[in-house]
Design a protein that fits this description.
Helix content is 42%, strand content 14%. The protein has a 6-stranded mixed sheet with strand order 1-2-10-7-8-9, sandwiched between helices. A 4-stranded parallel sheet has the order 5-4-3-6, with helices on both faces. 51% of the residues are buried. The protein is α/β, with parallel strands linked by helices and 367 residues long. The N and C termini lie far apart (66 Å). Pathway: Carbohydrate biosynthesis; gluconeogenesis. Keywords: Cytoplasm, Gluconeogenesis, Lyase, Pyridoxal phosphate. Belongs to the serine/threonine dehydratase family. It is found in: Cytoplasm.
């Protein structure tokens, strides 16, 4: 058996991603005024939805691999550039196939994520550059050249095979949502891989009724800026603490999807993203990172109605893709609440509505 045949056989034994639960949240439903469902992508092997797209991409490249027929000892080597989550997905997918994986991350990547990459079994973790684009350039120009023909480059978001992998999350949502498709799906946007996958699946399903809320933070709003300009825009810098959203430019396909009638672009602050994290921890005992918390923040204090531009009905079904929870700790949640606790001054007290747990735990005098 050749190396590539062995790897393809391994694929049949274990996939790099799993089907995740869709959980209705009664606390978030109470806060939002409609039925809120959580797609628990934080339970993926790598801790984020990227297990789907990166895993599918690596599987496709293994199938395409052409190694010398007389040299079965040549082992493919996966190379990933990432702010953290894509690298984790690449490492986990590579380990599923018994392959080494080297990850290059920007200098902004926190020690926690570096430690997780190493603990997951990365062959090497290299820090280089101020942004993901800088890290990616270093990976392709300098690091990968040492591996020769055995090198497989795994981009974090910009490839149709990645979008196809991510599309599986929407197909699962369609099958798991009770009594028909959701009225809206909320997903955050970095480079656009998850967003592309969701929109692709809706097209495949012939679903024109579900609204997609594409959510970004102010310091990483590359999609929103592109929509305003009517063309792709490269941000000067990423200033958001939601570093997993830190792509200065989205894919062309993301812009095309976002210009559709069923997509709404939403931009929230880092403070709101952090609030989404600590309130989800209070309300559902789930810890997620800021790039995911920005989605959850829409459930609170009227933000979802504002984003949709209409009054919510109690029977409306809204799915939040809990995209990841790798880059978060209890200490980080506490620090975010200390830094951004002022945002809870605007917690709304609707008469006749029972408060959710996170409203009770808001700082004294700030609600």
């Amino acid at each position: 058996m050749t190396v590539s045949e062995h790897l393809i056989s391994s694929r049949e034994q274990a996939a790099p991603w799993i089907e995740t639960p869709l959980k209705e949240s009664y606390a978030l439903s109470q806060a939002a005024g409609c039925r809120i469902f959580l797609k628990l992508e934080n339970l993926q092997p790598s801790g984020s939805f990227k297990s789907r797209g990166i895993g599918n991409y690596i599987l496709r490249r293994v199938e395409d691999l052409e190694l010398p027929a007389n040299n079965n000892s040549v082992q493919p080597h996966i190379f990933s550039s990432s702010g953290g989550n894509a690298g984790l997905a690449a490492v986990h997918a590579s380990r599923t196939l018994g392959l080494p994986c080297t990850v290059v991350v920007p200098m902004s990547t926190k020690p926690l994520m570096i430690a997780k990459l190493k603990a997951a079994g990365a062959h090497d973790v290299v820090q280089k550059g101020a942004t993901w684009q800088d890290a990616d350039s270093h990976l392709r120009k300098d690091v990968m050249t040492q591996a020769g023909s055995a090198a497989i480059y795994a981009p974090p978001f910009d490839h149709p095979d990645i979008w196809a992998g991510h599309s599986t999350v929407m197909h699962e949502i369609a099958a798991q949502t009770p009594n028909g498709p959701p009225d809206a799906v909320i997903c955050s946007v970095g480079g656009g891989g998850l967003f592309n996958g969701v929109c692709q699946a809706l097209d495949d399903l012939g679903n024109t009724s579900t609204t997609v809320l594409a959510v970004e933070t102010e310091g990483a709003r590359s999609l929103n800026a592109a929509l305003e300009a009517g063309e792709l825009v490269t941000l000067d810098d990423i200033t958001s603490q939601a570093t997993s959203l830190g792509a200065k430019r989205v894919t062309q396909r993301s812009l095309e999807y976002a210009q559709g009638s069923n997509v709404k672009s939403v931009v929230l602050s880092d403070a709101e993203a952090a609030m989404g994290c600590w309130r989800l921890a209070d309300d559902e005992r789930i810890m997620v990172e800021m790039a995911c918390g920005v989605n959850v923040a829409l459930c609170y204090d009227g933000r979802l109605e504002q984003a949709l531009g209409r009054k919510l009905r109690k029977e409306d079904k809204v799915v939040i893709v809990l995209c990841g929870g790798s880059n978060v700790t209890l200490d980080m949640l506490a620090k975010w609440r200390e830094e951004f606790g002022w945002v809870e001054k605007v917690i709304r007290k609707d008469s006749g509505k029972a408060p959710v747990p996170s409203a009770i735990t808001a700082p004294t005098g700030q609600h």
